[in-house]
Amino acid sequence: MKSFHDECAVFGIWGDNEAGRMAYLGLFAQQHRGQESSGIVTLNEKEHLHHKGLGLVGEVFDEASLERLKGHAAIGHNRYSTTGSNLIANAQPLSAMLFSGPVAIAHNGNIVNAKAIREELISQGSIFQGTNDTEVVLHLLSRNPTRDFIQNLKDSAQKIEGAYSFTILTGDKLIAMRDPYGFRPLVLGRRKLENGSVSVVIASETCALDLIGAKFEREIEPGEIFWVTHEGEYSIKIEKKVEKTAHCVFEHVYFSRPDSFVFGKSVYEARKAMGRELAKESAVDADLVIPVPDSGVPAALGYSAESGLPFELGIIRNHYIGRTFIQPSQSIRSFGVKIKLNPQSHILRGKRVVVVDDSLVRGTTSQKIIRLIRSAGAKEVHFRLASPPTTGSCYYGVDTPKREQLIASHKSVEEIREFIGADSLAFLSPDGLMSAVGSKERGFCAACFTGRYPTDLYGLDKE
Amino acid sequence: MKSFHDECAVFGIWGDNEAGRMAYLGLFAQQHRGQESSGIVTLNEKEHLHHKGLGLVGEVFDEASLERLKGHAAIGHNRYSTTGSNLIANAQPLSAMLFSGPVAIAHNGNIVNAKAIREELISQGSIFQGTNDTEVVLHLLSRNPTRDFIQNLKDSAQKIEGAYSFTILTGDKLIAMRDPYGFRPLVLGRRKLENGSVSVVIASETCALDLIGAKFEREIEPGEIFWVTHEGEYSIKIEKKVEKTAHCVFEHVYFSRPDSFVFGKSVYEARKAMGRELAKESAVDADLVIPVPDSGVPAALGYSAESGLPFELGIIRNHYIGRTFIQPSQSIRSFGVKIKLNPQSHILRGKRVVVVDDSLVRGTTSQKIIRLIRSAGAKEVHFRLASPPTTGSCYYGVDTPKREQLIASHKSVEEIREFIGADSLAFLSPDGLMSAVGSKERGFCAACFTGRYPTDLYGLDKE
Amino acid sequence: MKSFHDECAVFGIWGDNEAGRMAYLGLFAQQHRGQESSGIVTLNEKEHLHHKGLGLVGEVFDEASLERLKGHAAIGHNRYSTTGSNLIANAQPLSAMLFSGPVAIAHNGNIVNAKAIREELISQGSIFQGTNDTEVVLHLLSRNPTRDFIQNLKDSAQKIEGAYSFTILTGDKLIAMRDPYGFRPLVLGRRKLENGSVSVVIASETCALDLIGAKFEREIEPGEIFWVTHEGEYSIKIEKKVEKTAHCVFEHVYFSRPDSFVFGKSVYEARKAMGRELAKESAVDADLVIPVPDSGVPAALGYSAESGLPFELGIIRNHYIGRTFIQPSQSIRSFGVKIKLNPQSHILRGKRVVVVDDSLVRGTTSQKIIRLIRSAGAKEVHFRLASPPTTGSCYYGVDTPKREQLIASHKSVEEIREFIGADSLAFLSPDGLMSAVGSKERGFCAACFTGRYPTDLYGLDKE
Amino acid sequence: MKSFHDECAVFGIWGDNEAGRMAYLGLFAQQHRGQESSGIVTLNEKEHLHHKGLGLVGEVFDEASLERLKGHAAIGHNRYSTTGSNLIANAQPLSAMLFSGPVAIAHNGNIVNAKAIREELISQGSIFQGTNDTEVVLHLLSRNPTRDFIQNLKDSAQKIEGAYSFTILTGDKLIAMRDPYGFRPLVLGRRKLENGSVSVVIASETCALDLIGAKFEREIEPGEIFWVTHEGEYSIKIEKKVEKTAHCVFEHVYFSRPDSFVFGKSVYEARKAMGRELAKESAVDADLVIPVPDSGVPAALGYSAESGLPFELGIIRNHYIGRTFIQPSQSIRSFGVKIKLNPQSHILRGKRVVVVDDSLVRGTTSQKIIRLIRSAGAKEVHFRLASPPTTGSCYYGVDTPKREQLIASHKSVEEIREFIGADSLAFLSPDGLMSAVGSKERGFCAACFTGRYPTDLYGLDKE
What we know:
4 copies of one chain form a homotetramer. By secondary structure, chain A is of the alpha+beta class. The first copy, chain A, folds into 2 domains: about 10-240, Glutamine Phosphoribosylpyrophosphate, subunit 1, domain 1 (4-Layer Sandwich); about 270-435, Rossmann fold (3-Layer(aba) Sandwich). The first copy, chain A, is built from 17 helices and 23 strands. The first copy, chain A, has helices at about 20-30, 55-60, 65-70, 85-90, 115-125, 135-145, 150-160, 205-210, 250-255, 265-280, 295-305, 335-340, 345-350, 365-375, 415-420, 430-435, 445-450; strands at about 10-15, 35-45, 45-55, 75-80, 95-100, 100-110, 160-170, 175-180, 185-190, 200-205, 215-220, 225-230, 235, 245-250, 260, 265, 290, 315, 340-345, 350-355, 380-385, 425, 445. In chain A, the strands form 6 sheets. Chain A has a 7-stranded antiparallel sheet. In chain A, helix 10 packs across helix 11 (about 295-305). The two termini of chain A are about 25 Å apart. Chains in contact: A-B, A-D, B-C, C-D. At the A-B interface, helix 1, helix 8 and helix 11 of A face helix 1, helix 8 and helix 11 of B.
């Protein structure tokens, strides 16, 4: 029940004669990371074939388009849902014919200094088709006179700042590249084919490896450029040092699929641990624990296990919701939320209920859910969030609302409690969150909770 | 993860100027009962307006079609998914112009002696458009010279045998009618409108009442004909006595939404009770309990509560699956199941796992799921079903496979265990099931588990 | 540029393993007779296969649907464009399963006593799906206890009155049947197949025979029932005598394709003859003759040949017009007509122009065309119609406007001239028309011009 | 019945608050010049709004898209039909954001040195999205550091060679620009609005002016840059001199609509004059003259007028043909041609027929048409072409087949006559053609007939 969205999924594969179909499956498994558009580029001999379109993976591709996407290597991309006028021009992978040959690029993240680079490039005569930051990278690559593509990438990395997990396809190689902070996840796996050979697979999340039967090997390291050709595999580091990594903690809180391993840790376990920490920090005398489905389920299980309160599916979610829904003109109480969520009176009536959700952004949905639970007869509603109050926007690839729309940016916890109508309200502390995701071994970015951004923001926060 | 489907949802509403839109919502909430086609007929003054089509509710109706469906009363229908050549002719509600005026009918169930009646009607000159049993009822109504429509329904009820929960719309009334056995659910609710008046709502399941904010009042009784007109509300009984009711126990086991009340009992609670009974009957020394999502979740919660074994989401379900999916030509291990279900190794590895599902039909899916769980590292897999072995087909409106395809019709429990590859296998006993659904107050049909059919089958079992 | 439409095209074929595809071609060639819906039923062994839909032939059928339409015999139908709520139920061929087996029927014409028969059938318990008169025939057939289908047809012919050219397919025969008046055309041809055998082809117009390479043999006679089975060909007469035939003269004036032979005469030649007669009757001193394209072209050629005035394409027609066109909100002079027709100033400027069209119904289009011609600089506009003033509606299968909307029903020729803004106006005389179509050998219905209807109208003229 | 296609229509309008809808109409009137894709860009205040898509004008635009295309100025483009992988990227108008602001460009013609410029631009870091020559112009404009857009256009004109009729829209002006040879037509008109103001209209053909009620004023001169802003209208000349103009004679022979004025002359009159010249040059003893419809009609009228032989529509064309047509697997004699054309035996039987078409390219269609005419019973077939033998490809914007596929490039007239099966064959002489189009006042390009190309071809003829 969140109102923001991740900036996409990437995928790459090398060494499989059904590379296009594998990319389709890899994108399918990562559909939750982007529903606006989907695209695949394959490498067939030395030629690029591509297909992209608006909609879900299953809508964009059909048997005919996959049949056309021949080749032994591919990259793919899902884009998140937004509104805008030139959507198809923003769909990825983006392609260009450079002096060094064809190149296609798929990007998860956000380049914070894209605007300045873009303006400079336009003044030098570059023509931009869309409005996304990734096109800047393509132009930087095209403007570099070097014919050594890897060197070209290294040069570009000196100019761009921010979050990027790339899969890139040229006329002879598949490349995976990740910014030095490691904001977004990017993993490497291998898949044994029937003929005995082994393909290299790159994906945003491990759930994509699982679906196609690939084995997770390791993360692409922050600051690493990894590539594979017919000759072999190579890895170098970008010449740009950062103090420590800044993995996006929101991947664990909300974005990633619970069955993925992200930043070396099971998302499901991280969420359960958040629930446990939350129970330790904010115990309350109650009769049962219920999740806001589906995002709050693991944390609620953790809360239940730690607190000893029984876990119940007090709200049932309807999964048949499509993307358009026609509303009646007369008002139906709590209609907007009830389309998806139905509370169970026989469970809730007369009970003191702990309700667990992953995070709280605007507060309006939480308000509606609490009303729903009360109308089903709950005696007390204790709202518990498995993350701290969201006080800042993200500039590294998460489409959060503007700061003003974040309720915690201008209201105290008590004011929020009053607004959403809970009997009690508690958020997980930043320390509790860090402990749940295992921050000792890893450096995390929690700027949306703390306001401490790991990079310069190039004025993005003032727009 | 079941391979059979219910025969539809019905809906009816009287006394709401947005009756068409309310029917749309009521069908939407009951989408799980039928995805092949959907249709609505409204009563506008004395005229019927109708719209139906193939696909999900959200695909069949748009703003324009709902705008056209004016009127103060409506009935609607969702049909289950099947293959066939003349699908649109079978889509419901079915309509006709009788001597007494327009009539439209929506049917959940199956009329077991439809074939014989149909043949007789054709020999008398009736023309059938589709191949479904409901058309028979329309022809029986049209052939009766009486102009008293309720009498006409009573007369027809003497001729038809089997399962029927009808919503019927004429030129001046909304009718709900249920067979004397009460095979399929049918409920009556009321909804307060903004202007203070109250509309009458009929639905297969209470979840449809919940969505539109209607209050559940009572079930339409087995053998009851209930109707509402501008003058008032009426109720009579069909002149056909049966020894005891035969509510479909499978509604509780699998079909109905967990947030519905069916046959007077919460489906979610019934399923949890099945899990508890199962734990009592078939305890096993294990480390954790996991459900086959989503259908096995409530029973697994019950099993966990009763057994004290921890509950975990050991398998994560991907809800983005559409209706078509393109497979790669190369084999990917367990691909068919993995598209929907991803096991979590970090939870399962080295563990003795109790896996709970609602029922077992062909056994092939269970086999795949168990392979998946083993490949994720589980040490032992103890499969538990929250219902008895399915040994017989249903002729009362559930599209079960033929008897030969039901694995339990020709294999012992031990043989099934071997086939699906479990370390142990146990089914809930018929007594345990009856105890879970509260059969003392209610008579249930469990013919698919016991072979005891409450009615003559008119040769359907020999086809 | 006419605003009325014919009631359909029919087609039938026996003895071709690509019967379905031949029907597709036959309907395609007859697209001008009906654009609302199209349908084909084939006979595969003893089973009927069918496909119909709304739209043009090329929209309704695709490779997949034609592939499914297997069989050695087929009938097909195009329906004219209209508005209505239940279009698909009215699409033909109509099908039913009778006691004698499957039957499908395609109809061109209109049964004038359909309403009375329909009401009687409903009172006897028949259920009607659509609102068209053809369904009445199906019910008459279904109600007859005889198992001799041809006898059944003969019996039905005693009850129905009006215009009908049928192609009918049963489980073992293809039938062509035409009313005793012969209102609508119906022709028989034969086509030599590659394997040496010969198929029997039935069509409304000979242009359908031409496209598939069939040879015209003869008309189906008025009052004839012709059928073909695996055993042979048969022909009988309906037991209903009429004084003389009543071929629809409007087929020659406007409906039929100019390259068809209708009622034994070339439509193109008939139209040229009308133009010649018109020039004899209504000569005028002018500089050139131009047609209203495309319907006025042959008559204008005839007028030019007879009068000696030069023929010019003074108005060019744009054939790219689709069925929807979005208009600007600001007014553009004569926009509605200019979308299709562009006058050529360099031809018309300063000239005295004879403009020839086929007929005049409401007068509004003629008014716009004359304005267009004047705005292009013509000095004088002499409007000539190749048929008499239309004063009555048609009840035999032509969708003419109601009587009140026919300008000639309430205005004199001089008043019409004034209304449309011509310098002179002349219509072809009824005698001239009859002479052009060769009425001596044939009896024609010209009721729309003369008001003399050949049959009782059963109150249709009072509705 | 031609197998080549023009390279597009352009349109522009300034000073109309319904500029987008006017562009829609202007493109609609010019649909014959391009059916692959269509697009419109409007100028709303200082912002560009755009919509383009694959298909006919009526398919690409709907009420919603036109509603969005607000603004007081617009340009539009229709693209011809071809095959290719990246069609949407080639659809025009092409847009870019330059340093000087937004620019959109619509192009009719072909730039012969595009390939060399393109390669140089890529080596300098430009990224190309599509494969068409127009994108080169956009990049030339973007690379020029000047902020004076008109100067930028003048500079670019020094670099590009070939055929171009442009409409261009910037943030504050509408520009029309035509190459010094004047290969492709481009006209200027004005339209009086209801509110008394006057809009400026640019189009490829005058038929676009006619539809929206604009008055033709003059041609945009070869080598002229004309523009209009809120301040006024301006015109300058490109600094590039050519000896004489090279208007494409094929516009008169085939491409343009007969109701257009092109290069100062009525296309219809030019075609009639060709027919007259043809009759003078190649008289033959015959019974009648028939056109190949629709392209041969005006020339056949001219031939008939000059020769005194009667004109007949001996072949009727079916205008209902869509873009896909499913063929039967069995062979039907002359099927491919009969789908569109039906010969009339009653006119042709036993006759000596002069058949007039506009031009002959591969000869295969002519061969089929002649077979068709003979099968309809013609005694003699004298084939007459209203243009000389086509011996060379066009590189100035006409999609002619490659030289090898032009039958006249390797066969003599006598050999062609034998191939197509005519009793006699004659082409209009180059002199006759020039006399018909009035070449004395105007310089024409007839390179496809003469091999004399007015510009360097930059190796295009060797590809």
